[in-house]
Write a structure and sequence with these properties.
This protein has 339 residues and is of the alpha/beta class. It has 14 helices and 8 strands. The chain has a domain of 214 residues: Rossmann fold.
């Protein structure tokens, strides 16, 4: 008669569910970590290649310990350009706006902290006010005591901050496609994820650059729409914009956008000539709740709606933006003469 195994022996013979799960969990974790490590290595290689292929086109300033990259062209009264979130000097360069403005003016264009070839120290929260202090100090080093300042998108927030903190420095403002008042923006909250502590570092070094490459065409369609992307934008160095460090900088600015708009309520203190300009079909920022409202809050401002244009008006309506610059320069000159 065959002996019947005891229940205890059967339990010992059959692996428990937890013991079966342990090896599979270990394998899955190992695969995930290996994948992230490979993604980080690929992104680091691509970032290094992008910097070799796109060396700095301008000069550098050491401003309060921050290495700031800028391009300077032309002579005459100073005009300062500040780019939007995720962008850099080459946006204005490829648009042709720098060359147009440099015919009659001394044009100074900065890579804002963390973008292009400028540093962005991690021990600083780079709010528009903090960036205003940096730009003011940089212009002092360049011998600029008075300038017209153009800011596009997030750069418009920095331009406003400079004008509020240093009104004697800013003789006039051109505010293009800006965001000035808090609104519900779920997309901005999502874009801020790579700026989170620890998790953000992992995302910005691994998944985010690869995902950004996939959605790049969709993003361009949104920011340029309803217009098509102009051929001249092909000179914009996409690979520099997709570096982990720049993605993290962009995420940090996305996270700061709504809080800064909530805190900024001194628009009526802006007394210099101001031209507000925006595309009527901007798919990124609602111009009625932003540019039109700002115009209503600043009595001396002029507001131009550009029909058939979206967010990237410096690229798709370059001549109109240049006209806005000339208008502010002329108005500030007349104001100075009257005084």
């Amino acid at each position: 008669m065959t002996p019947v195994p005891s229940l205890k022996r059967l339990r010992q013979a059959v692996p428990s569910q937890s013991s079966r799960k342990a090896p599979s969990l270990f394998v899955a974790s190992a695969i995930a970590l290996t994948t992230l490590a490979l993604a980080a290595a690929v992104n680091r290689h691509l970032a290094n290649k992008a910097e070799r292929d796109n060396p700095p086109a301008g000069s550098f300033l050491d401003v309060n310990g921050v290495r700031l990259h800028y391009v300077e062209r032309g002579t005459g009264d100073a005009v300062v350009f500040l780019h939007g979130n995720g962008s850099m000097i080459q946006d204005f360069e490829s648009s042709g706006l720098i060359d147009l403005a440099a015919v009659d003016h001394r044009v100074i264009v900065f890579d804002r902290p963390g973008f292009g070839h400028s540093e962005r120290p991690r021990n600083v929260v780079w709010t528009p006010d903090t960036q205003a202090e940096l730009i003011d100090a940089a212009l002092a080093q360049l011998g600029v005591a008075n300038a017209v300042v153009l800011g596009h998108s997030w750069g418009a927030s920095v331009a406003v901050a400079i004008a509020l903190k240093y009104p004697s420095l800013v003789r006039g403002l051109v505010l293009a496609s800006g965001y000035y008042y808090p609104t519900a923006r779920p997309d901005v909250v999502a874009m801020g994820a790579p700026a989170l502590p620890i998790v953000g570092d992992i995302l910005s070094r691994t998944i985010s650059p690869l995902l950004s490459r996939v959605i790049w065409p969709l993003m361009l369609k949104k920011i340029f729409g309803p217009r098509s992307v102009p051929k001249k934008f092909g000179a914009f160095p996409k690979e520099l914009a997709l570096r982990p460090a720049q993605i993290r900088a962009s995420a940090a600015e996305s996270a700061l956008m709504i809080p800064d708009a909530m805190l900024r309520r001194q628009y009526e203190d802006l007394n210099m000539p101001i031209v507000i300009i925006a595309g009527e079909e901007d798919k990124l920022i609602d111009i009625e709740s932003q540019s039109a409202r700002l115009h209503a809050d600043i009595p001396q401002s002029r507001f131009y709606r550009l029909a058939g244009n979206g967010h990237m008006i410096q690229q798709t309506a370059t001549d109109q933006v240049m006209s806005a610059i000339k208008e502010v320069v002329n108005a500030s000159t007349q104001l100075a003469a009257a005084e």
